[in-house]
Each structure stands twice: as structure tokens, then as C-alpha cells.
């Protein structure tokens, strides 16, 4: 039996490939907050409550390496760096909208079960 293209690329399935890009606690939140508009690092840090500077920087670099987030350094003093979704990132963030809506609808039940 021939291997599927997904398996040839080292993934179990398409979901495995998607989770490689968006897996973890912080990446979906970063995508969510960049979905509406680009943000400076400090703005993004305030939106993603609880993330450390080290983790946010690491997650942004990882998303950038996957071509999902773009980083624009304006070469100004004080430093100004903007983060935005690429077209690939926008398409990925759009897939998270139904998940966000599901979470909104079931927040109370989820909160009571933890």
C-alpha cells in the first residue's frame, strides 16, 4: 500500500501537521489576538495574560519560522516591532473562530468542571 503524501512528509494526518504549527497553550491565543490587527510586542503581551516574555518571544519566533506570523522591525529608537498574520496565518486563525465560539458558548460548563 502506498504511503499518503501526509505520511511521506512525516505527519500522521493533516491534523498532526496543523498541531505542529499551532500546538501549545499560547500559540492559538497569539493567533486569536493578531487576527483583528497587527500588534506591537507590548500590546500582544498585555492581551496574552500570563505568558512570560521568554515564552512569548519563543512562540512568536516559532510562528514566524512556520510562515504564520510576520515581524516588522521599524528600526526606531525606542524599538518598535509589529507582529501580524501572514495570509497563511490568517487562514489558520480563521479555522480557530468556530473553536472560539464553542468556548464562548460553553464557558460556564467548562469552568464548573475544573
Automatic annotation (TrEMBL):
GO terms for molecular function: DNA binding. The keyword Cell membrane does not apply. Residues 13-111 form the HTH hxlR-type domain. InterPro entries: HTH_HxlR, WH-like_DNA-bd_sf, WH_DNA-bd_sf. It holds the Pfam family HxlR. It comes from the Bacteria. Keywords: DNA-binding, Transcription, Transcription regulation. The keyword Transcription applies. PANTHER family: TRANSCRIPTIONAL REGULATOR, TRANSCRIPTIONAL REGULATOR, MARR FAMILY. This is Putative HTH-type transcriptional regulator YtcD. It comes from Enhygromyxa salina. The lineage of its organism: Bacteria, Pseudomonadati, Myxococcota, Polyangia, Nannocystales.
